[in-house]
Here is the input.
Amino acid sequence: MVRISEKDRKIVEDLMANARKPFTKIAKELGITEAAVRKRVKKLEKEGVIQGYSAVVDPKKIGYEVMAFVGFDAEPEYYMKVVEQVKRLPQVRKLYSTTGDHMYMAECWFRDRKELEEFVKRLEEIPGVTRVCPAIVVEEIK
Here is the structure.
């Protein structure tokens, strides 16, 4: 585990909240120079603390009416084969290996409920998959 200072932690939290926040504003809040912030960010990137930057998108505004978390399980001997197939499906935005109710959780976007139903059927047909449990997101709260 990489240990980071409180200033580095504040920089990371600022960039997580808004990756486009100017380094000058971060520097002013921390009482350091912009060059110091830039140097710290480069170090955090090199150490793998900051792994990249991305746009936060409203799925509905680009045509995805249904967001769902799909929990599913697989027979242990099929674990990697299932992962390899599911992670290539275009509806899967994120895929997690989990403990609890399911071995895997997939965050998915669908154009409509019919596409979700087809996705569930496709998952159920993958060799080794034993259970599929979708949960449609009704509202994003945070």
Summary: The chain has a mean pLDDT of 96. The chain has two domains: 6-46, 59-136. The first helix runs from residue 6 to 17. Residues 59-136 form a domain with the Alpha-Beta Plaits fold (CATH 3.30.70.920).
